[in-house]
Design brief:
The complex is a heterodimer of chains A (about 60) and B (about 350). By secondary structure, chain A is of the alpha+beta class. Chain A has one domain. Chain A is built from three helices and three strands. A three-stranded antiparallel sheet of chain A has the order 2-1-3. Chain A is globular and about 30 Å long. With about 350 residues, chain B is mainly beta. Chain B has one domain. Helices cover about 5% and strands about 40% of the residues of chain B. In chain B, a hairpin with an 8-residue loop joins strand 9 and strand 10. The chains are: A alpha+beta (about 60), B mainly beta (about 350). The interface between A and B is medium-sized, with 17 and 26 residues.
């Protein structure tokens, strides 16, 4: 039986410094994204969609 | 006949009072703030023209028409000087680094950063204790303004002033694109008219950044060719009650709405026309980045577009986007981060 996908994808900040400056601890995975780390995010989450639309994060293939 | 004076003979010095020294000399409401300034904070504001303080709202005035008379007697006019609000409006083509840093700091004195690097207007701005005679608050930072008068005995000096509104603007077609700052200070204390020998700490023209220095300009993550940009920061201050026989304020409350609004005019190209749908019509927030990273930089991570208007010129269509800065989804972002270094 195939493993079921969680629907999440991996993303990282396009510019970690700019991400850190723009957001705060309230944002999901703020510390990791601010360090340039990859994180798993739901592509349909409102934060993810907005960050993608504004080029704050990019998908890691 | 007395001597006439030109407005060009006046000049303006703006400083930050050291309200936090634990000394009554720099306390909220102390008239001796000019001699107790934050080190190096007094700068000469070379405004295009120096406006005089607006004294009109400093009066509480009533005309009480009493029965039995069709005219007003002198006693029928109540005119109390000092129980109102005094304001000073300025308009300055920015030419001094310390000066512009002072202004953005005075808009939010309790910021947590280093003003010589950047200032962050956060999702949850804190409120200072600005009560009368306060000396212990570590980040109160009120301003004082001195308008030097060629008639030496009548310099106009305002102390314990809050910068409650600041507009920063740049236009490709005006002033060579240079940064311009305008705004309003308010005080609930009577300005003094006196001989005042205080001099500015910095008078240099050492800042000449503007729109053409902004090598990065994006709206909604896409490159934008910007012709005009304007940002208005509002952090109102209100006088509270009164103390003393003069009716001066018992300090301030500065806990009202903190807002940043503005507009950006840019080429209505294939990227930005699509962004009209992505952000305006979809009611999602857009990021504005305009600057060069350090010397001049405006970063607004999550603005809400309130309107877009189009200039349908033959020479190229431009669009003006009016916006309100937000703290983003779930208050997860800053209203703005600005840098002037």
């Amino acid at each position: 039986m195939a493993k079921q996908s969680s629907g999440k994808k991996k993303y990282k900040a396009v510019d970690a410094v700019a991400f850190k400056e723009s957001f705060n601890d309230t944002a999901p995975f703020y510390k990791k994204l601010s360090k340039g780390d990859e994180v798993s995010l739901d592509p349909s989450d409102k934060h993810t969609m907005n960050w993608l639309a504004n080029n704050f994060i990019k998908e890691v293939k | 006949m007395g001597r006439a004076y030109s407005g060009r003979e006046f000049s303006a010095i703006v400083g930050i009072a050291d309200n936090d020294a634990g000394s009554s000399a720099g306390a909220v409401g102390a008239a001796t703030q000019d001699a107790n300034a934050v080190s190096g904070s007094k700068f000469l504001m070379r405004a295009d023209a120096v406006n005089m303080f607006d004294y009109s709202a400093g009066y509480s005035r009533a005309e009480v028409a009493r029965a039995g008379s069709r005219t007003l007697r002198a006693e029928d006019i109540v005119n109390h000087y000092g129980s109102g609000v005094f304001t000073w409006n300025f308009d300055w083509l920015v030419d001094n680094e310390k000066g512009i840093q002072n202004l953005v700091e005075l808009m939010y004195p309790s910021h947590g950063g280093t003003i010589t690097t950047s200032i962050t207007y956060p999702a949850a701005p804190t409120v200072n204790d600005l009560s009368h005679a306060e000396t212990a608050e570590t980040v109160s930072k009120l301003a004082f303004i001195l308008l030097t008068n060629p008639l030496a005995s009548r310099d106009h000096y305002m102390h314990s002033a809050n910068l409650q509104e600041l507009t920063l603007s740049m236009s490709a077609g005006t002033d060579g694109g240079r940064l311009r700052a305008s705004g309003q200070f308010m005080s609930g204390y009577k300005p003094l008219i006196e001989t005042n020998a205080i001099a500015a700490d910095t008078t240099a023209s050492d800042y000449a950044k503007g729109l053409f220095d902004c090598t990065t300009s994006t709206f909604g993550g896409d490159a934008a060719v910007v012709s005009d940009f304007s940002l208005t920061i509002s952090n109102p201050a209100n006088r509270v009650g009164y103390q003393g026989s003069a009716g001066e304020t018992d300090g301030y409350i500065r806990g009202g709405a903190f807002s940043i609004t503005g507009s950006i005019t840019m080429k209505s190209d294939s990227l930005q026309q699509i962004n009209d749908d992505t952000f305006w019509k979809a009611n999602t927030t857009a990021a504005i980045v305009l600057g060069q990273g350090t010397n001049i930089d405006f970063n607004l991570p999550a603005v809400n577009v309130s309107n877009i208007s189009y200039n349908m010129a033959d020479e190229g269509v431009f669009q003006t986007v009016d916006f309100t800065a937000t703290s983003g989804a779930d208050a997860g972002g800053n209203l703005a981060v600005l840098k002037f270094t």
